[in-house]
Amino acid sequence: MGYLLASLKNENHHPPPQPSSQPASAPAPPSPARRPPLSLPGASSAAAAQRPLRFPPHAPTMAPLQAWVHVALALTAAALDRSDLFHFGPEAGDLRLEPGSDRTHELRLDRKLYFFDGAFESVYINTNGFISMAKPPAESDYLGQMPASFGLAAAFMGDLDTSDGIGKVYFRQDSSASVLQRINEHISQAFPAEDEVEPTHAFIVTWENVAVNGESGRGDGTVHKRNTFQLVVASMESASYAILLYPSDGLQFHLTNIGDESKPVEVGFSKGLVKGWFSWSTTQGPYYRITTDDVESIQSLTQQTNSGRQGLWVFEIGTSSFFTSITPGQVSEISPGAKNSSEQDLVFPTIDPEEVYTEEAYSDETASLSPEVMYPVEPSPEVIYPDESLPDIYSEEFLPGVKYPVVPTPEVIYDKDPLANETYPEDLLPEGNYTEKPFPDEIEEFSPRVVYREESYPEEPSPEINYPEEASSEAPLRPVDTSQFQPNYPHPRRQPENPQVLVVNEDDLEIDVFSYDYERCANSRQKCSSFADCRDYSGGFCCHCRPGFYGDGRDCVAEGKPQRMNGKVNGRVYVGNSPTALELNNHDLHSYVVANDGRAYVAISAIPDTLGPCLQPLASLGGVIGWAFALEQPGYHNGFSVVGGRFTRQAEVSFHSSNEKLTITQEFMGINEHDHLVVNTWLEGRLPEIPPGATVQINPYTEIYQYSRNVITSSSNRDYTITLPDSTVQTRSYHWKQTITYQSCEFSEAAWSPHSTQQLNVDQIFVMYDAGNQLIRYAMSNKIGSIHNIVPEQNPCYTGRHGCDSNAMCRAGTGTQFTCECAGGYTGDGRTCYDIDECRDTPQICGRHTICNNQPGSFRCECIEGFQFASDGRTCIEVEQGVDHCLRGSHDCDIPERARCRYTGGSSYVCACLTGFSGDGHSCQDIDECQPGRCHQDATCYNNQGSFTCQCHLGFHGNGFQCITDSEREKTPCEKHRESALAASAPTTFFLFSHRPTPQFVPTCDPYGAYEPTQCFPHAGQCWCVDRNGQEIQGTRSGDGSRPSCIDHGISPPLVGPTPRPDVSPPTPGTNLLFAQSGKIEHIPLDGYSMKKEEARTLLHVPDKVVIAVAFDCVEKMVYWSDITEPAISRVSLQGGQPTTLIKTDLGSPEGIAIDHLSRLMFWTDSIMDQIEVSKLDGSYRRVLFDEDLINPRPIVADPNNGRLYWADWNRDGPKIEMANMDGTDRTILVSENLGLPNGLTYDPLSRILCWADAGTRKVECVDPYSRYRKKVVEGIQYAFAVVSYGKSLFYTDWRREAIITIDRMAEKETDSFLPQRRSKPYGITTTYPQCPPGVNYCSANNGGCSHLCLPRPGGLTCQCPDTEDASCVERGHNL
């Protein structure tokens, strides 16, 4: 266990007075080097400073010699009663969690929840007394094993049970004014310094009378001890709070059963595992404990508080900006009218900045909630961090005790032009008249198609800053986890109330992080660069670059070889006094450095005119590559030689004259397969305004770098001059400080042996903003050497003026003598170097089953098709050809009536019992669902194989779940009319004579007792339409025995006259986009691939409906849509008129519709029925195509020309995209890897490409269904719901932006967006064509000769019957 750094810091950040002596009772401090970090991962001190430290308003000042702070913790004696809980139960509108133990329910939130530094749209409620941000694993994986691997808020976490029916778990979302007002009062009382508490949403979870799982009780089913408690989570626009309520009699037990032991329950907040510094590593995030392992601390939950009310606790648990820690409420005063019987004084000693408490002096006893202990002035939460303490870029003195020598800036003498006699790249050449080009020729062209090394990230959100409309870069930025790199603070930090801070040694955490420890070269050689050797040491292994190469061993580059850097720039930057931030979204950054003379060139693209001029002073934004590959003076090392290519840089820029501040976070992720260093950059803050047309000149400067293991710090002052368009000159300056963190190999001192202090000299600085091309350009010359004012080296190898080829290294001799030597992979005399084609000169260099690709200075080996790299990363082995046992029937799953077999790739499969059966999938048993209360009390339950039925008793009517007697149900007008007509039509007998009356009209009623819209009188041979009251609609009676086309009056009133309804507006001729938005369908005309936004308007209003899917039939010009409120599937003419409901029975939630205009078929998915159906376009001849292995089917599209169907299932446990023939044959999984929430699906018949929009991975991708070639189109989208293709463009609906977004599929980027006037979530989207695309299939002529359904497939068709029995139907197949 590490040591606790005692923190004292007042609200204005002034250090406390230093005591002249330490109290006798104070423990001896350990070495300051062991002081642990006290802030959360990913949070900067600058961000922390944005939130004022909350202190009791009456905190006394400290005495100069020995100050003891007495803070009166005033707790109200008015204990919390059960009636003080937020209203809960069925009468409050609560839902109830399924009874049992370890039950979980996902609750999708109406508003985002902020938790630590992440934002979440759903939570998981669990029986065991907690909510989580991700689906929790089995309870054996987290009970007694805290902190957990997933994010959770534990109100009272233990092995709890509600299966006896007495215990219950209720939950609901609530935005009512009364609830929000009460929440406001609790938060305001707990945080009196907060003056803007405006909760907008809350969800309430109540655990009522829950018992310990496994407690036997008295034998009558009643458990002795039961607990009741409540968790309320409230969210505002930028923060979330948790309120915990524990009634005085609510906690009757405090231990839980874990295995064969009884342990105290857990109360607190855990972030879970977070991403480590490398893509393959994770580390434990912070865990805030409210209670300890002491039972007394759990008992104190009902007796103490941090909010002014016993048993009521308030915590800030997350924000939308930088989040530093869980913040507990502050007890500032007694609630009005409350008794003051619980007041006690807490005594806090003054602490010397160089003193710390030992672990023994700050034991677990100190962590209890009892106020009879000694704390630092601001008690801290229990937060678990790795046991490392490293300098912080945000401390005022980030290396205490280090003296920085004053080094005079050397005078630099230039030959006319500081960049004369050099060669430069064409693309970074600024416009204008220059004597010589200020950029080298060899830099590659800018291209948006930069390929990055694939990175793997956990499901838990990484600690990044979340903003509206945020878009991820291609290689997501992971800000520095500052908990691993904090300084030894010269003054103690503040601590929150109640428990202590615990610092856990890294050895105590069983986490799979990158480490050299406990490994040997025999099984870890692949972790080294291919240009490095692996060496074993007593404690582990280290990688060392071979002669002719330099780096940290994991990344090695050839000496003298030019280096390139590519990446993305994101962020939010304010300019001047502007209240609006400028968003940076995936801007390309390219850099090139000539390693043998230290010249570096940087360019960032697509920078707007409002920001570009202001970025000119920040030459070091990309100049870090100058430090990494700086020209080395004798005995000194540039950055790459020390840290390699994987490190994190955090910098802060403070402008002196105007107090603006900008933070820069850069993560370097190593060298990719193209030998480019990959970096992601994030900017956040404010810049001084520089007007357009102004130029900036930066004076040469020096920067001192302080080196220690795993951390490098530097700071410097930069002067620059601004020449305004009117020739006015202004001189400004800023202070620059930065921290570079990395991981070195600890087992060999040779792996880390730079000077402790080095000086970077930067001169020949050139900056400009190219407004025409929207490029910001930087160029500079970099040298690394001694901090002392020594005579500069004159050897050309150290001055950079040697004339060697840019692909050569300069070897210094005596005096000014030197030689040029081509870098590895090149040949020549050093003055001129040529690339060696290793693939041509040594054909077998890559080995068997490979392809050799030559690259400048190197080569690359790739496995041929059908082979893949073995674990050594070099040998190509044959890919195992898997066997689909599910398809072949060679599996050992139970019979298809009880189980399903699911193919998982290779030769693997899993077995799962069908709904209504239990077991392991290999053996499944029927579940007897006929438990008490399953059916109505006046019905009998009959158990079936895999299901059950409910049947009302004799004399009752209903579906078995609701049963009523005939006397209870009042007959409808249609039923009364029918009875009356039947009675009048019945024959009568009078005095043995039979009398047959005149035939009477008998109305037809539907199953619900309403008038059918079409009524007929067979005796007269007439039919007519009626309204909802059974009244005939004039002009509809037919007299020739035919049936009129009557409108279903249950959907809309009858049409009067031939004109369209007022709320139906025919669209513009030509191609249009149609999209659904709640109760309406809107259209946007297209001009080529551009949306004519000004002509957008509503096509159809469908009040009180929720339209999900939209489809179009190009033959009859009909629009089809699905509605989930009724539910129903309907259609309407594109030219306006009366909507018609086609299907409204046996539907659950129809969410996708596909139209085959050739076969005149309609297909749809149902996510409640879990099936896919087909019918004719008028809704007749319904048939279920698939009802197995579907969990959440949503989008469906058709390929009429080839008789194919494609659909997506966004099942969170196994999302997939499937395809099949339209007759249901040849069903197969097309895509199942790397999917999240594939909501939208579209098929382009011209290119035969299937594309989808995934709201989980936030990507749009495409696949060729025939070759299975898969390609990513764009990345970093928001929350796509539906997508449609049109030519080279894709259009998708975005829930988060509530907009329609255009993607250029060829350019692979978003190009346009449309925001409807009425903002709400858009759903389905489709296109309308003036003419049908050409095509034909086997059912397009004469229904394929089928009597009912003609279902096409490749090479033929199948005639099938609807699910309803029809003796006239004939089923057969045709292969044509």
TrEMBL record:
Enumerate the SMART domains for this protein: EGF (SM00181), EGF_CA (SM00179), G2F (SM00682), LY (SM00135), NIDO (SM00539), TY (SM00211)
**At the top level of its lineage, which domain of life is listed?**
Eukaryota
List cellular component terms (GO): basement membrane; plasma membrane
* Sequence ranges assigned to domain Nidogen G2 beta-barrel in this UniProt record: 561-794
Establish whether keyword DNA repair is in the entry: no
Xref: Gene3D superfamilies? Green fluorescent protein, Laminin, Thyroglobulin type-1, TolB, C-terminal domain
Per UniProt, the keywords (alphabetical) are: Basement membrane, Calcium, Cell adhesion, Disulfide bond, EGF-like domain, Extracellular matrix, Glycoprotein, Repeat, Secreted, Signal
Q: Which residues form the Thyroglobulin type-1 domain?
A: 971-1046
Q: Kindly list the cysteine pairs connected by disulfide bridges.
A: 1016-1023
- Record-linked SUPFAM superfamilies: EGF/Laminin, GFP-like, Growth factor receptor domain, Thyroglobulin type-1 domain, YWTD domain
- Coarse class of the protein's main subcellular location: secreted
Any one Gene Ontology biological process term?
canonical Wnt signaling pathway
Query: Which is an annotated GO molecular function term of this record?
Result: Wnt-protein binding
Q: Where is it located? A: Secreted, Extracellular space, Extracellular matrix, Basement membrane
Write out the ranges of the repeats annotated as LDL-receptor class B. Answer: 1117-1159, 1160-1202, 1203-1247
Q: Domain EGF-like spans what residues? A: 517-557, 793-834, 835-877, 882-925, 926-962
Which residues does the annotated region (Disordered) include?
1-49, 454-497
InterPro entries in the cross-refs: 6-blade_b-propeller_TolB-like, cEGF, Cueball_EGF_LRP_Nidogen, EGF, EGF-like_Ca-bd_dom, EGF-type_Asp/Asn_hydroxyl_site, EGF_Ca-bd_CS, G2_nidogen/fibulin_G2F
This one is known as: Nidogen 1b
Q: Source species, please?
A: Denticeps clupeoides
Q: Which gene encodes it?
A: LOC114785431
